């Protein structure tokens, strides 16, 4: 629905728009009917109908091989290694603003236009900046923090300045005659149609029973695969032995080497610093320690940090401890509303680690 309204607005603004639906599965029938993702057969049909209403050409581009390699296989490998990936961010980086954009430019198009809620600001010298959406409640700049200045120069986000509710966007879609006005939002991981991430990983990696231990190393339960857990997880631990203090326990560490999951109290999740790899900058990389705010998950808040590049890695220190930071996720840096850049969290320093041991 957001993409359809974005396309309609772009066409109304005078752009020569072509609608493209990405075929991201070699076997689209494998995605069940009604999945709340973006890869069902219904989605392709809905996109075609929307393009007809807007009055623009429509094509289906097959990027299934790239998607499988760059997003799905990466997702599985990251969980197998004990990390927690963000497939939507990886899709933006590798598919929508790499494979798709490269093909579009090769065919003579100028930009990829999407329904993301974020803003691109053009400076007097012609350079581009990525900023949060005008409506913070809908802001999606976190998953776009992987875009560099060159990619931003070939991107359009017509919904970024929208200060309306989602219901009003739906009303606009309805006024425009777009049948997707009543379509539910996409929430699930698009290639896991039933939303069962652990089941998907089990089918790909196989079940592997291992121990759940507490901070002392004492066994408190078992699991069917360490890949089914993420740092900070509380539910679904199936621990038979209650904690001594009677309080809930959370996943503190995941060790793929010995297939062990360590659990403990919430306070043990407090993190004072992190190291992130593969930094990508929406402009010039920062020089020296700089004060920013950081966002650590797609729907999380901001926290004050000091960040600097050291030997190609991003070192981030938090002004106040934060909780439940998972390696594999992205840390996105902001200067007020401007997105500075993004990097993948590789390790953290826990407040409880008096020796400063990184995890």
- Total DSSP helices: 7
The share of residues in helices is 10-25%
Head-to-tail CA distance between termini: 41 Å
Strand order of the largest sheet: 11-14-13-12-15-16
Number of strands: 16
Order of helices and strands: HEHEHHEEEHEHHEEEEEEEEEE
Q: What Rg do the Cα atoms give?
A: 22 Å
For the largest beta-sheet, the strand count, sense and barrel status come to:
6 strands, antiparallel, barrel
Structural class: alpha+beta
Shape: globular
Task: Indicate the proportion of strand residues.
Answer: 25-35%
The overall pLDDT, averaged over residues, is: 89
Uncertain stretches: 30-36
Account of the 3D structure:
This protein has 359 residues and is an alpha+beta fold. Helix content is 24%, strand content 28%. It has helices at residues 2-12, 41-54, 64-80, 87-106, 149-152, 166-175, 197-205; strands at 19-23, 58-62, 112-113, 118-122, 128-132, 155-156, 210-213, 219-223, 250-255, 260-264, 270-281, 290-295, 302-310, 313-323, 330-335, 338-350. It has a six-stranded antiparallel barrel with strand order 11-14-13-12-15-16. The protein has a four-stranded mixed β-sheet with strand order 8-7-10-9, with no helix packed on it. Strand 12 (290-295) and strand 13 form a beta hairpin. The longest helix is centred in the N-terminal third of the chain and has 20 residues, at 87-106. It is globular and about 65 Å long.
């Amino acid at each position: 629905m957001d993409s359809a309204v974005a396309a309609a607005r772009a066409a109304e603004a005078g752009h020569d728009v072509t609608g493209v639906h990405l075929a991201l599965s070699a076997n689209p029938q494998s995605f069940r009917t009604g999945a709340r993702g973006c890869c069902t057969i219904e989605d392709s049909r809905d996109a075609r109908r929307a393009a007809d209403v807007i009055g623009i050409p429509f094509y289906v581009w097959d990027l299934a091989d790239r998607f499988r390699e760059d997003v799905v296989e990466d997702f599985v490998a990251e969980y197998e290694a004990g990390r927690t990936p963000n497939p939507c961010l990886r899709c933006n980086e590798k598919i929508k603003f790499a494979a798709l954009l490269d093909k579009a430019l090769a065919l003579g198009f100028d930009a990829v236009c999407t329904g993301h809620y974020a803003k691109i600001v053009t400076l007097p010298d012609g350079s581009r900046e990525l900023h949060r959406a005008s409506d913070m409640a809908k802001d999606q700049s976190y998953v776009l923090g992987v875009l560099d200045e060159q990619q931003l120069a070939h991107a359009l986000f017509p919904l970024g300045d929208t200060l309306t509710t989602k219901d009003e966007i739906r009303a606009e879609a309805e006024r425009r005659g777009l049948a997707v006005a009543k379509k539910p939002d996409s929430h699930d991981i698009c290639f896991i149609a039933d939303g069962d991430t652990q089941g998907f990983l089990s089918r790909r990696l196989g079940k592997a029973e291992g121990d759940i231990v507490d901070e002392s190393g004492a066994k408190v339960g078992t699991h069917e695969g360490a890949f089914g857990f993420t740092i900070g997880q509380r539910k679904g631990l199936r621990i038979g032995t209650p904690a001594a203090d009677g309080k809930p326990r959370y996943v503190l560490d995941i060790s793929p080497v010995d297939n062990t999951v360590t659990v403990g109290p919430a306070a043990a999740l407090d993190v004072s610093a992190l190291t992130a790899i593969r930094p990508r900058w929406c402009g010039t990389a920062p020089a020296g320690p700089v004060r920013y705010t950081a966002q650590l998950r797609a729907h999380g808040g901001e926290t004050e940090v000091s960040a600097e590049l050291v030997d190609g890695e991003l070192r981030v220190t938090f002004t106040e401890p934060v909780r439940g930071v998972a390696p594999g996720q992205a840390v996105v840096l902001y200067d007020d509303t401007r997105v500075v850049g993004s990097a993948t969290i590789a390790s953290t320093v826990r407040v409880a680690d008096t020796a400063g041991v990184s995890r």
